[in-house]
Amino acid sequence: MAKLRVKLLRGLAGKSESQIKAVKSLGLKKVGQEVLLEDSPVVRGNIRKAIHLLEVEEVQT
C-alpha cells in the first residue's frame, strides 16, 4: 500500500479556519514538520484543501 509523505512548508497565520483544521487533522503543527500517512480519500481531501501550504510525495512501501 502506498503512503504519503506530507511536509508543512508555510505557516498557518492568516489562513482560513477550514485550511487550518485540514492541516492539523494531518498531524502537522510546525513549519518544516513531516508526517507519513496512509493514502486514503480522507487524507487526500485534507491535502487538497491546503495544497498550497504543503509538499506531498508518494512513497512505496
Produce a short descriptive summary.
This protein has 61 residues and is an alpha+beta fold. It has helices at residues 17-25, 41-49, and strands spanning 2-8, 34-38, 54-60. The radius of gyration is 11 Å and the shape is globular.
Task: List the keywords.
31% strand, 61 residues, single chain, globular, alpha+beta, three-stranded antiparallel β-sheet
Structural overview:
It is a single chain. This protein has helices at residues 17-25, 41-49; strands at residues 2-8, 34-38, 54-60. It starts with a strand and ends with a strand. Strands 2-1-3 form a 3-stranded antiparallel β-sheet, with no helix packed on it. The mean pLDDT is 96. Helix content is 30%, strand content 31%. 16% of the residues are buried. The protein is globular, with a radius of gyration of 11 Å. It has a single domain (2-60), classed as Ribosomal Protein L30, Chain: A, CATH 3.30.1390.20. With 61 residues, the protein is α+β, with helices and mostly antiparallel strands.
